[in-house]
What we know:
4 copies of one chain form a homotetramer. Chain A is an alpha+beta fold. Helices cover about 25% and strands about 20% of the residues of chain A. The first copy, chain A, has 8 helices and 18 strands. In chain A, strands 1-2-3-7-4 form a 5-stranded antiparallel beta sheet, with helices on one face. A 5-stranded antiparallel beta sheet of chain A has the order 9-8-10-16-11. A two-stranded antiparallel ribbon of chain A has the order 5-6. In chain A, a hairpin with a 2-residue loop joins strand 12 and strand 13. Chain A is globular. The two termini of chain A are about 30 Å apart. Chains in contact: A-B, A-C, A-D, B-C, B-D, C-D. Chains A and C meet through loops of A and loops of C.
Amino acid sequence: MASNTFGNVFKITTWGESHGKAIGVVIDGCPAGLELTENDINEALALRAPGRSPYTSPRIEADQAEIFSGVFEGKTTGTPISIIIPNKHADSSKYEPIKDLLRPGHANFTYLEKYGVFDYRGGGRSSARETACRVAAGAIAKKLLSHNGIHIIAYIKQISGIEAIIETQNIEKLRSATHQSPIFCPDTQATSAMTALIEKTKSEGNSLGGMVEFIAFSVPAGIGDPIYQKLEANLAHAMMSLPASKGFEIGLGFGSIAMQGSEHNDLFTTKNHKIETETNNSGGILGGISTGMPITGRVAFKPTSSIMKEQKTLTIEGKEESLQLPEGSRHDPCVAIRAVPVVEAMASLVIADALLLNRCVKL
Amino acid sequence: MASNTFGNVFKITTWGESHGKAIGVVIDGCPAGLELTENDINEALALRAPGRSPYTSPRIEADQAEIFSGVFEGKTTGTPISIIIPNKHADSSKYEPIKDLLRPGHANFTYLEKYGVFDYRGGGRSSARETACRVAAGAIAKKLLSHNGIHIIAYIKQISGIEAIIETQNIEKLRSATHQSPIFCPDTQATSAMTALIEKTKSEGNSLGGMVEFIAFSVPAGIGDPIYQKLEANLAHAMMSLPASKGFEIGLGFGSIAMQGSEHNDLFTTKNHKIETETNNSGGILGGISTGMPITGRVAFKPTSSIMKEQKTLTIEGKEESLQLPEGSRHDPCVAIRAVPVVEAMASLVIADALLLNRCVKL
Amino acid sequence: MASNTFGNVFKITTWGESHGKAIGVVIDGCPAGLELTENDINEALALRAPGRSPYTSPRIEADQAEIFSGVFEGKTTGTPISIIIPNKHADSSKYEPIKDLLRPGHANFTYLEKYGVFDYRGGGRSSARETACRVAAGAIAKKLLSHNGIHIIAYIKQISGIEAIIETQNIEKLRSATHQSPIFCPDTQATSAMTALIEKTKSEGNSLGGMVEFIAFSVPAGIGDPIYQKLEANLAHAMMSLPASKGFEIGLGFGSIAMQGSEHNDLFTTKNHKIETETNNSGGILGGISTGMPITGRVAFKPTSSIMKEQKTLTIEGKEESLQLPEGSRHDPCVAIRAVPVVEAMASLVIADALLLNRCVKL
Amino acid sequence: MASNTFGNVFKITTWGESHGKAIGVVIDGCPAGLELTENDINEALALRAPGRSPYTSPRIEADQAEIFSGVFEGKTTGTPISIIIPNKHADSSKYEPIKDLLRPGHANFTYLEKYGVFDYRGGGRSSARETACRVAAGAIAKKLLSHNGIHIIAYIKQISGIEAIIETQNIEKLRSATHQSPIFCPDTQATSAMTALIEKTKSEGNSLGGMVEFIAFSVPAGIGDPIYQKLEANLAHAMMSLPASKGFEIGLGFGSIAMQGSEHNDLFTTKNHKIETETNNSGGILGGISTGMPITGRVAFKPTSSIMKEQKTLTIEGKEESLQLPEGSRHDPCVAIRAVPVVEAMASLVIADALLLNRCVKL
Lengths: 363, 363, 363, 363
């Protein structure tokens, strides 16, 4: 089982509740000899941090990860890397008044059905806070990939009805435009429209859905495994394990439904004496294995469940009640924004794992 | 690794190439005491069989599964159930002329990149033939679920631009309408439009994409696991491991992007003294765990890669060539149709596994 | 769980009951490009076959394995290798009279307690017949190891009180002496004494215990994994999963209890500019990882449970009865003998797996 | 792979080096609703602590475990339990002078061969310090087992040539006698002889081997899994993953080699209308599944590798050198003693895991 573990060879195990002492992740299977500092982790965490822009939750977490094991004299040793991120400023007292209310769109009902007990403070284990651990582990996977010339980026492709128009040829430009946007959207015009909509929606006590796109550049052909460990299956698993994610697609995804085979098939060609495809409708994967073209996919996020608007609900015992989140509750008006670095991290974890596994397939 | 294995406790391992002697599946972890006959398997296989209607591939496989182990005096014994399905009528000679050509949209390029060797006959291991094993194993999972009052159905929701309108309240009616359609589409009007389009497209040597929807009824609340074994993550993994699948969504999926939190949140209510939700936008899952409402999802399938139209391509060595599939090649004009029983099987495997695992969570 | 699967990357799944249609094994994770024929498998099976000598069970199985997948044009393709071994001459009628009796030393009681149902014919799944599948898979692992210059041999070290004196320097001589002995014991004098004892014991309707020793030559230093996947832990797991095995030791094993640290510690030295140890008390492993010295271990097998002597027992319902195996029952007087090729197979599987995994540990 | 993870459903992942900031363990799969405090863990750790008696290492670690997650209002919640144990008094400066020397019987050579890098301080990851994490996790498994009426005890059975004579009928008496002995040996006479020998050996700068025996009482019949997850295979795996363990046996183990089938077979009988066996030579397991009789096994530990005596060795580069551990080095003269609570913990982990898995086997 191990429902808190992800990966085959490059394996992560996360633990911790939103309002406990800390959260953490153990990375088992990172090769020895990789240079790694706490700064590598903290830079990645900073991107995910709330309060980074007015369009995410105003909580100031200032996450500072500590590496507790697996690194010696600045390099990984091949033993498990334990990273711990203390939970600061966790004031759970304000959740007291609503602790016996079922929260629409939340997991407290289902956790109670499953376990009969629930650490309700800040959403406990079901909180998106767990994704900080994924980002920490993902930062290591990214270093490993970068060492192999592979680079991955994610960004906001859509918020509510507003879709960004994005030029994806140049990864450096793409990364810089993404990080310059307060909402990780490399299209400046779309950023303006999106931020305006977010502000309006937030002022109404409501929330918005969004879509995150990711691209992995320079993944060599032949990575990934057939049948049940297909690269797209593992990516789908990774992305659909994120809080609030409701859909995943690779390449043209749902858009391929309306196409004909002759349009959708990517024709093979040679470029610089290397075989590649003229188009990349498949999203860089055929039969679960990378083609050498960029791997691209998208993740749909529902609008944040926690809204300031009053909602009709029930108590745990089934009595009708009204739910009003306490004044000053800190929630993202659009979870998709903060999911951007997490999607990047999950894609990195999946591809790093596949890359390591690939060393075993040929004589 | 084990890229040919799926599941945690109810675990399947499949093997076999399209034009080898046989394909097969080993099911490990099926509880003892379940009544099981070869007929149970063969009925399920018959639904997946090509030649079932003019709208699928005309190959006549007439799959006859044999149970080789794990069943004694009509009941499962708790030991592995080995099912073998012989490959009949496999004439691989006609693939000879094209064996050195890269096939657009196919996996022969990526398998060669990965393994340096490829059993090209009929697509070898990358052929959709492997899914017969999933259907065989799924038939057992379905019996197990049915024993627990859980029923799962899949059907065609869309082909190319034509979307079916489907009444999902009554599972018996839904199943019967689905099975009466030659293309597993319970909407008779849509069926007519779809079959007309399929015939036209086929005559042009082309192919179509499609969408399959599934619903699992009466899954009790509390099934599934948080974080990395979320029910929707495992379903996504299952579906995205299918040949030609390009997207997965749960509940409203990509449709939830354009919604606001106050619209999307399913409000809790009581019905017959049981807590449920008024709407089911979430698709029956919150935080990775079932809510007790129907679990619904959708899978996008690209248009079949094998088309009769001539295509520009390369040889394995990178020389330009033209690919013309041999006369009499048997290919589905729309893979989504034959994927219907496979999607049903995969959903059954995921939910049966989660159900068994759930026995371990409480004291 | 997957109690019928063994290994991490080089993974086997076995299935089948003693008196079913067949038994089989699926090998997942064998690298592509390895030359493999059915003959490779059948030669290994011939060594395990009963009837090979008068000192093993006189059943004539004449196992003929068939490869059903994973091999193309004489080489492995990286896809699962399915091997099926039909069960011939399986006459289960003679087990009818004793099917409701608990058999001392057998698993029918425990299977019934666990599953509530038991395929009693020939011991069903609990029969040592399953080990033929291990030998078949082991034959492939041995080819892979041999390709890497690693060679493994097992032989009888002890039967009852008779211990063999064995010269282990030269693997070719050791293998030849082992295969010349009708009981896999390279010491000819011990062979004589052992065979005499076996004949006497058999004539009394009784059985004997024994010990099998194995040595893996030329395993490079650095193979194996620390903590929970230690090479000796995986070897112990492998050997203690064999029917009738009751003990495992590595290096000096239980003999090291009576030693002092200064005696037991193997001192480092150089030979041909390579670091090795002067002695090899550790059995070629330190901290779970190979030292480069031969890996040596031993497995204890209890005397065969099935004896012709009458035994007091109970029926399944708990009524007192007497158990007399039917005339002509075919049982090994000493299971350790037939376990020799199985121990060799299991050691090969463990070391092949560790070798493949080792490719992932360094940058 | 995950070489730092153990277990199937009740799963532990450990991390940390001997002289890092801390060591820790994440327990994933503990059922919800179990009462648990830090005191439960610390009591178990106190038994393992060095300095507990003059016969173990005089280091004063005073381990204080902290629970960081998975427990809410005094009960487990079903989410991962993270336990962290700070490393106190870790002075690694004295290892500086010997950091480039290969240490006979130690893992620094093999870790360097495998990873190319090694955190040598205090043995790093290869240190027995890691076993404190096993004891912490084992304390939870023991609570779970105790809740199910199952009790497990381990004790010293032998040190060097001195064997204890132990009455195992009454677990309460056995436990109390064990804990009264400074070396966990319930036989007071043997304790005297053993402690005298330990003192003498220690004064000579040498070390001793030993044997630990364990018994699990009241494990119901039907627990454990056939073939590759046999209870004895998992126990063997667990015990052989311990530092310095060289052998494992179940029931009569190596002693069964010299027996005949008619002696070794445990005959079935009824007691209080329940089926059990007259003798328990099998050690409570048949075919990998528990019989309902006490499960008993033994583990052989080599003499401690770290001795104060000067030893001939090599530098990492292969130059001859002499190794003299620094004055005041703290090492156990007999590792078997401190292994007693660790063996108890590992047996508890294996049986708890099997117990949980057993809920999945029957309809």
